[in-house]
Amino acid sequence: MKKFFLGILLLLIVLAAFIVVRTMMYPFPKPPATGEEPETYAISDTSLMRFAGGIRIPTVSHADYDQFNYGPIEAFDTYLRNQYPRVYAGTENYTVNQYGLVFHWKGRNAALKPVIFLSHYDVVPPGEYTGTDSGQVTFSPHDPAAPPISAYPGAWERYPFSGAVVNGRIYGRGTLDMKSMLFALMESVDHLMATGFVPERDIYLAFGFDEEVGGTHGALKIATHFKEKGISFDAVYDEGGIVSAAGSLPGVHAPIALIGCAEKGFWSATVRVKGLGGHSSMPPLQSAIGKAAVIMQRLENDQMKPMLIPLMQQFFANIGGMMDFKTRMAIANPWLFKGLLLKTLQGNNTTNALVRTTTALTMMKGSDASNVLSPVVEFTVNFRILPGNTVEDVKLHLEHACRGFDVEIVNVGVPREASPVSGTDAQGYRVMERTIRQYFPGAVITPYLTIGGTDAYKYTTVSEHVYRFMPVLINNFEQQSIHNNNEYISINNFSRMIQYFQSMMKDYDKQ
């Protein structure tokens, strides 16, 4: 018996030594040499004024296209044409479905597959604003820059469509999502054309006008147009990743450049739960609301199983070198610690979304009076589908949660599968990686799963290499200003974005 226990002890010692050695030998990328803020980038007042003017046009999209206000959309199109005559003169430009904007800048070598840069110019509603400066234009581009916000965005400091340039920032709805990227692309082409530069391969720009409500009339129509014309792309670049400031992810004390190589799918459904209606003085043993509550509790308590997909394994391997030894040990030895790692990741809202199909209960409707029992109660649930799961998997999961009850499940919108995963061994990825290293030298660069929806998804029919990245360095609080109050972008972020895209366009075929 003594020999048995000694054998077990020896085995445990060998196992522990193996785990430690494997962790020490694991090829985590070396942390960047510096985590410091990159240099300040110069920008002309003209570039800032053009951008600020675009923010002042309230291009709010609407899910009901019959209620869509196309006046600001048309005004924005006219504004671009007036502000960038050189770009319009130097490209073949046209519209798709009236308001989708396409620019084709021809290169020297027509045999090379083109690349395309995407953006959109519609925005979400700004929410409530109680200030009195709605007609005021503030342009103070040389003010000292205020530090990034360090708290959850409160009320708007400036009118949401002011395009105010003050304190080293440009304020307004769309400054981060996504007019900044659109204007940075236009500025980049304009600046390069002014120098006489001609790209080696064709470059396209494509701007949708309804991304915030699904992109079915904008990006989808544009991508379909390219497919029908037989045009495919060496790389597609859109929003979806950022450079997350140091400390944004617990334990990682360097900026992280998140390149979205895939995005989650999407399905919303309304569940109509049937029961006995009537007067509240004689309620049934279980009301329709009670039945709905049981189903909703099942959905929250018994969610779809977490998975560490290969893309996220690569993500954690890339950032693991910055993390504590315990976390590195779990990443380096998934054969033993995968379950523990997944359990840990599920404990945080952000990381949980990276390892499972998420379930969000978003809406509910019962009776219209406090003393009336509704015979039908409905609730809406939204699933963001992890690559590896399918819409059909999620439907079966929802049906299982509804077992034992009389329900009707109705689609809300069109379900969408998770996107294909674009590889990191393509030229389009390597060029982006090289350019990020140039402009964000202190950042850890890693592929990533984009958890929100983007227009990029529509372009998977015309390219195998679709990447989601906006070259801005922002902290968690600045990220929260997207679709929220007090949205802004720093002047330095905007000016660096212009430099970044110029380098991407100029050096794409540089060896």
UniProtKB/TrEMBL annotation:
InterPro entries noted in UniProt: Bact_exopeptidase_dim_dom, Pept_M20A, Peptidase_M20, Peptidase_M20_dimer
GO molecular function: carboxypeptidase activity; metal ion binding
Domain of life: Bacteria
Keywords: Carboxypeptidase, Hydrolase, Metal-binding, Protease, Zinc
Residues in Peptidase M20 dimerisation domain copies: 262-402
Signal sequence segment: none
One Pfam family, short name: M20_dimer
GO biological process, alphabetically ordered: proteolysis
SUPFAM superfamilies, alphabetized: Bacterial exopeptidase dimerisation domain, Zn-dependent exopeptidases
Family under the similarity heading: Belongs to the peptidase M20A family.
Name this polypeptide is given: Carboxypeptidase PM20D1
Organism: Chitinophaga dinghuensis
